[in-house]
Specification:
Layout lengths: L11 E8 L4 E9 H10 L7 E10 L3 E9 L19 H4 L5 E10 L4 E8 L13 E9 L6 E11 L16 E13 L2 E14 L11 E15 L4 E12 L9 H6 L8 E13 L4 E17 L5 E14 L4
Antiparallel strand pairs: 1-2, 2-3, 3-4, 4-5, 5-6, 6-7, 7-8, 8-9, 9-10, 10-11, 11-12, 12-13, 13-14, 14-15
Length: 327
């Protein structure tokens, strides 16, 4: 654990796909460990066991409809570390992006290369939604020659989020407006993979939420990142991940406890965070793997450590080991 210098059980994932008929499938995924705890925290739930996927899937070839709880399609990173490239969770996956959603996802394929998507769901990372408003999303997806490892997508989302969570949520309130433009892509060739993402997020806040503001304010976050992985042979590979986020009010970067204490959410915060990760991966026959990663995080303003000493950058070394089993 790069935060406390401890070993932790990062995650266990168990998934089941049950065909119900020629067109219908039931898909359920259980996640445990620290990954499960993060999933529950983002969803305002407790414990370290969660279901990131619990849905019915209908497909007739050109059209696919998913109903229930599902992973978000945004971003380049996976919480499943057997499928992910880096050993640590990146800035983009931690701050601007949701984990999942509950609702409906409709995909229509016009050809092997081009398809569209339409979403209607509760607010981001909301299992239970206590307001009447829903988030609507549209997407355009391009798969080069129909390949799943060479794609580009562009998605837009708009919806009124709840003002708060748990006991603090206002029943029936539409809440603050959130708008999001999301682009991600991946290109693979000869075993080498380049993945990237760009996010623009706007969120409207009441005057009482933003220090130093004379009225209601709209916060804007822009961010992006890329991940490059190159295999040296069948067992060894190296990777690089670079990310940057700019948050004008600090409404997302203040999720970090050190940033929250120092800046909170305020007019003129103008926070910029950057992270660079370099790592090496080793894989074994049977699905076992290990990753060793060196990482540097930077903020453009000072924060204080546990002893009150100011700092702007931090270094970490992460060792991640795991295994995947399928049947």
């Amino acid at each position: 654990d790069q935060r406390d210098g401890q070993f932790t059980f990062d995650g266990l994932q168990f998934g089941v796909d049950v065909p119900l008929s020629q067109a219908w499938t039931l898909k359920v995924t259980l996640m445990a460990g620290r990954a499960g705890q993060l999933l529950q925290e983002f969803s305002s739930e407790s414990g370290s066991l969660g279901f990131p996927e619990a849905m019915l899937i209908w497909s007739n070839g050109k059209d696919t409809v998913r109903l229930g709880r599902m992973w978000t399609w945004m971003g380049m990173e996976s919480t499943d570390l057997t499928a992910a490239v880096p050993a640590s969770h990146g800035l983009m996956a931690t701050f601007p992006l949701p984990f999942g959603q509950v609702g409906v996802d409709w995909r229509h394929a016009f050809s092997p290369s081009w398809s569209t998507a339409l979403w209607l769901f509760n607010g981001e990372d909301r299992i239970r939604d206590n307001n009447r408003s829903k988030t609507v999303g549209v997407g355009l997806i391009y798969n080069h020659g129909g390949a799943q490892d060479r794609f580009l997508n562009l998605m837009a989302f708009r919806g009124a989020e709840q003002d708060d969570r748990g006991p603090g949520a206002v029943p029936g309130a539409s809440g603050r407006l959130r708008e999001r433009l999301s682009h991600s892509g991946q290109w693979a060739w000869g075993g080498t993979t380049l993945a990237w993402e760009v996010e623009v997020l706007r969120e409207r806040f009441p005057v009482a939420w933003v220090a130093g503001a004379a009225g209601a304010r709209t916060g804007t976050l822009t961010g992006g990142g890329l991940t490059f992985r190159h295999p040296w042979n069948e067992r060894w590979a190296g990777y690089l991940r670079a990310e940057a986020i700019r948050d004008d009010l600090g409404f997302r970067l203040n999720w970090d406890p050190d940033v929250q204490v120092r800046y909170g959410m305020r007019r003129g915060a103008d926070l910029t965070a950057r992270a660079l990760s370099l790592g090496v991966e080793r894989r074994w026959t049977g699905g076992a793997f290990a990753r060793l990663e060196a990482r540097r995080d930077d903020l453009n303003r000072d924060v204080a450590d546990r002893d009150g000493k100011a700092f702007r950058s931090a270094h970490s070394l992460t060792l991640c080991v795991g295994a995947a089993f399928s049947r």
